[in-house]
Each structure stands twice: as structure tokens, then as C-alpha cells.
UniProtKB/TrEMBL annotation:
The lineage of its organism: Bacteria, Bacillati, Actinomycetota, Actinomycetes, Pseudonocardiales. Residues 1-12 have a biased composition (Basic residues). It is found in: Cell membrane. Residues 1-21 are annotated as: Disordered. Residues 61-246 form the AAA+ ATPase domain. Pfam families: AAA_21, AAA_23. This is AAA family ATPase. Gene3D superfamilies: P-loop containing nucleotide triphosphate hydrolases. Keywords: Cell membrane, Ion transport, Iron, Iron transport, Membrane, Transport. SMART domains: AAA.
Length: 272
């Protein structure tokens, strides 16, 4: 893949390049397609997967990496596959969760090869916004069965189904996520108010400074403001390039709309 340059865009390191001097050490350094990965059919015919093959892999050199792009760009497919490649449950949860309510995840996770850093995370977790309800239900089931300390204690002690969707997400970030953890998140803003998104921004930054690593697929211009994060924008052709915060698509579109909402609404209704 040929990296693109321009205002706010920086070169994305290739698979074999060393991190820049002084870069924070991360748990996951690179991910690429393995030699036995398929070439035809879903998900291998997706543009982002073809770009992953052509580029030799995706490098991570910062504690926080965001993936942004239009709906259907493949960012959620990538983070789900990364979670599975790391041994996490496709529907979400920690490395100890092994439930499934539907066999709906792609085989891409089994085809990925992950290059790890020297450090090992104290914990790993996959938050998939659309199936977090199922994680909460599994926690309830396991705690009813007993056999150990209540799992819900690690989420603040209040059953997640007794909290609002947004409150349960905040409980996860505050109580379950900790320093030196590896966290893969798919659209965590889905249940959050703007105030909640700002609280998550602060928590992600706090944990990143304490040795955690995050890989996050998001549409949120608020979350993208985490200091020192790498923002990778996936284009229509599946290739990605690093962008500065002010150039990220969710930021540009949101700012444009808020600057003149009446004009944008009129244009949208006229087009409809």
C-alpha cells in the first residue's frame, strides 16, 4: 500500500520498520494476514482486508490507536478479528469468557498473525457495543452458578442490567479496566452521552499513561481527542493513512454540521 501525504497526514510505518525513538512500548506491535489466509469470498474480498494483505500488515506504535471510516469501511471487522486473534471472545468480554449467542463473526481472526511486544498485559478485554448486553447476561449467569468471587464485583458491584446502557459502559471503564491492560473496543461511544464520552476520554488517557494499550474503532469526535493517540482513517479503497485530529473525518463532518446546522438540514431534506 502506498502511504499518502498531505495536510494533517503522516506516513504509516511498514511492518518491518522500528518504532520511533522514545515510543511507548505496546503489547501488540503488528497484525498481518497469515500465509494460509484465504483470498476469495468474505471477508477476504473486503477492501480493507485486501489492503491488509497488500501492505504487509498494520503497525501499532502508540498506547492508543483509533480506526475511523464510513459505515462499511471495515474498521469493526478489523477490531473484531484482532480481538479473536488475541484469544478474546468474539461477542466481547475478557479472555475468560467463552459464550456465544450466535455464530456471526468472520473467520478473519483465525487468519491473523499478531506480533507481540516484550511486555505481557495484566488483563485483556474486548468491548463490542452491539453485544455488550450479552456479556452482561453472561456475567449474571455465571454469578448465579457461583463457584468463585462474584464477577460483577469487578464491574462496580451493581448488576449491569440494573444500570442504563451508558452507565454500564462507564462502570466497565472505571472498575474493570486497569493499568497495563490490553483493550480492544468497537464503537464504545454507542451508549454514551457527550458527557459520558468525555469521561471515557479522560479514563482512556489515564490508563494509557499507566501502561495500558487501546485499539478503538469509533465515530466519536470526542473520543478521538485523546492526547497523543494515533488516528488511522480507512478510505473507500480499504487503505488507511494517519491523520491529525483536526483532519479526521468525524471531526471535520461534525464541525461542518454544527457551524451551520440549518443549511445542512435543508440540503439533506432537499436531497431526500
Amino acid at each position: 500500500m502506498s502511504p499518502r501525504r498531505g495536510p494533517g497526514r503522516t506516513r504509516v510505518r511498514g511492518l518491518d520498520e522500528a518504532p520511533p525513538p522514545g515510543a511507548a512500548e505496546v503489547f501488540v506491535q503488528h497484525v498481518r494476514l497469515g500465509p494460509d489466509a484465504g483470498t476469495d469470498g468474505y471477508p477476504y474480498d473486503l477492501p480493507v482486508v485486501r489492503a491488509l494483505r497488500a501492505s504487509g500488515g498494520l503497525a501499532f506504535d502508540r498506547p492508543v490507536t483509533f480506526l475511523v471510516g464510513h459505515n462499511g469501511s471495515g474498521k469493526s471487522t478489523l477490531v473484531e478479528a484482532l480481538a479473536v486473534a488475541l484469544g478474546l471472545n468474539a461477542e466481547g468480554g475478557s479472555q475468560n469468557f467463552r459464550f456465544a449467542t450466535a455464530d456471526a463473526h468472520s473467520p478473519l481472526g483465525e487468519a491473523l498473525v499478531v506480533r507481540h511486544g516484550r511486555r505481557k498485559p495484566r488483563s485483556r478485554y474486548f468491548l463490542r457495543a452491539e453485544s455488550f448486553f450479552n456479556v452482561a447476561s453472561e456475567i449474571d449467569r455465571l454469578d448465579r452458578e457461583g463457584g468463585g468471587p462474584p464477577i460483577i464485583d469487578g464491574y462496580g458491584g451493581v448488576p449491569l442490567h440494573e444500570r442504563s446502557h451508558g452507565e454500564s459502559f462507564l462502570d466497565l471503564f472505571v472498575h474493570r479496566f486497569g493499568p497495563d491492560g490490553l483493550y480492544v473496543l468497537d464503537e464504545p461511544e454507542a451508549a454514551l452521552s457527550p458527557q459520558g464520552a468525555m469521561a471515557v476520554l479522560a479514563r482512556v488517557h489515564e490508563l494509557a499513561r499507566a501502561g495500558a494499550q487501546f485499539v478503538i474503532a469509533t465515530h466519536s469526535p470526542i473520543l478521538l481527542a485523546v492526547p497523543d493517540a494515533r488516528i488511522l482513517e480507512i478510505g473507500d479503497d480499504g487503505s488507511w493513512h494517519a491523520v491529525a485530529y483536526d483532519e479526521a473525518m468525524p471531526v471535520v463532518l461534525t464541525r461542518g454540521f454544527l457551524a451551520d446546522p440549518a443549511r445542512h438540514v435543508a440540503e439533506l431534506l432537499e436531497d431526500g
